[in-house]
């Protein structure tokens, strides 16, 4: 969704993902990267530099979810959420910032979740990893501000994704019904805030978190 949006508006996209690309576009380059592995991220940026020497916008939206009570959560599943959802965003952001520094301009947007505010049962590690994005982003915003780089966080409410499909539909419906704006998010709801964070006019907007649907 995000990559297609950027491509449709004339941007170039380098996508990091563990699997194969589903996008066929002349301005899209796919790099196989497991963001949970710091070495893989560094190799991915080495490959990226063969395509371009400039990175202007980074969207950290890679995430994994295991929804399970804390006492029976497999340690490997808990570690995967921290490594992918939090450490992965940190590694991608730090490597991208090194390239953004050269041009003195950059936008980093971390994709968080309504789980942070709602704190649903079964999502202790997932919610914590997503909450960590805000703190991490706010600190990095201070570090990167002198370089002309902003860092913000977008908390997405329920939206049709493969991850959401893992959860029982009736439970998700109940959560959505309890939101101040009780509906599922649409792609344009996400892209609207993303465009705002990434625009030239938002150079004075950093260390901010926006949650969709009225979650806080």
Automatic annotation (TrEMBL):
InterPro entries: NAD(P)-bd_dom_sf, Sc_DH/Rdtase_CS, SDR, SDR_fam. GO terms for biological process: monocarboxylic acid metabolic process. Pfam families: adh_short_C2. Belongs to the short-chain dehydrogenases/reductases (SDR) family. PANTHER family: 3-OXOACYL-(ACYL-CARRIER-PROTEIN) REDUCTASE (PTHR42879), 3-OXOACYL-[ACYL-CARRIER-PROTEIN] REDUCTASE FABG (PTHR42879:SF2). This is SDR family oxidoreductase. It comes from Modestobacter muralis. The lineage of its organism: Bacteria, Bacillati, Actinomycetota, Actinomycetes, Geodermatophilales.
């Amino acid at each position: 969704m995000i990559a297609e949006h950027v491509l449709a508006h004339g941007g170039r996209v380098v996508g990091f993902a563990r699997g194969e690309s589903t996008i066929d576009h002349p301005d899209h380059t796919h790099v196989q990267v497991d963001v949970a592995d710091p070495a893989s991220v560094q190799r991915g940026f080495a490959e990226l530099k063969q395509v371009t020497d400039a990175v202007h916008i980074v969207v950290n939206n890679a995430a994994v979810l295991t929804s399970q009570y804390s006492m029976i959560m497999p340690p490997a599943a808990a570690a995967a959420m921290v490594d992918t959802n939090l450490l992965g965003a940190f590694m991608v952001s730090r490597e991208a910032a090194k390239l953004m520094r050269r041009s003195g301009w950059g936008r980093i947007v971390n994709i968080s979740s309504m789980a942070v505010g709602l704190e649903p049962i079964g999502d202790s590690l997932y919610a914590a990893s997503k909450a960590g994005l805000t703190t991490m982003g706010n600190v990095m915003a201070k570090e990167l501000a002198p370089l002309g780089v902003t860092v913000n966080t977008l908390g997405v409410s329920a939206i049709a994704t493969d991850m959401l499909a893992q959860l029982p539909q009736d439970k998700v419906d109940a959560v959505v019904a309890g939101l101040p704006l009780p509906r599922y998010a649409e792609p344009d709801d996400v892209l609207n805030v993303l465009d705002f964070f990434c625009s030239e006019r938002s150079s004075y907007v950093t260390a901010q978190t926006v949650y969709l649907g009225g979650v806080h």
